[in-house]
Every structure is written in structure tokens, then in C-alpha cells.
Amino acid sequence: VVSWNAMLAGYVRHGHGEAAIKLFSQMQHEGMKPDVATFITILKACAGLESLDQGKQIHAHIIKRRFESDVFVG
After folding, report:
1. What is the pLDDT at residue 63?
2. CB 11: neighbour CB atoms within 10 A?
3. Could you please report the per-residue DSSP string of 4-66?
4. Distance (Å, whole) CA 4 – CA 11
5. How many degrees, rounded to 5, is the angle at CA 69 between CA 7 and CA 35?
6. pLDDT tier at 31 (50, 70, 90 boundaries)?
7. Running DSSP on this structure, what letter comes out for residue 15?
8. Helices 36-48 and 2-13: crossing angle, nearest 10°?
9. Rounded to whole angstroms, how far apart are CA atoms 28 and 21?
């Protein structure tokens, strides 16, 4: 997961939010389970793209994975 998170963070940091979201989807498709750091990063991607719908979808994943009580993603 650490390598995936590094890639996601790099995309987001350099303004490639759409690429980060695509990579997030690929990550899940390949069976990787996102962690708190993954969700923090992908939420930043959604915010940077001003994508409320995608942000809501990510929020649903956060609730499903029971991370909503985490201060950084809840």
C-alpha cells in the first residue's frame, strides 16, 4: 500500500488529480485495500478537482471501511 500511496500523493502534489483517481480505482481493482493515508490523499485529489460526486463516493468507502472515526478522514 505504501508504494500506491506514494504514487497517489505524487500525482496529487503535482496537480494530476484525475490520474490519482484512476490509480485509486486500479488499486482497488487489483485487490489492494486503501488505508487512512490513501483516503487522505484521494480526498485531496477530489478537492483539487472540485469533484463533489467523487468526494461523496470516497466518503462512502471511508464509512464502509470504518475509518470515519479517524480525525484526518472523518
Report:
1. 84
2. 21
3. HHHHHHHHHHTT-HHHHHHHHHHHHHTTPPP-HHHHHHHHHHHHHTT-HHHHHHHHHHHHHTT
4. 11
5. 20
6. very high
7. T
8. 20
9. 11
* Block residue for cell numbers 484521494: 42
Which residue reads 485509486 in cell numbers? 24
- Are 54 and 21 in contact by the 8 Å Cβ rule? The answer is yes
Looking at residue 10, its pLDDT comes to 98
Cell numbers given for 58 = 470516497
C-beta of residue 32 within 8 angstroms of C-beta of residue 18: no
How is residue 36 written as a grid cell? 487512512
Cell numbers placing 27: 488499486
Q: Which three cell numbers stand for residue 33?
A: 485495500
**What tens digit of pLDDT does each residue of 15-30 get?**
999 999 999 999 999 9
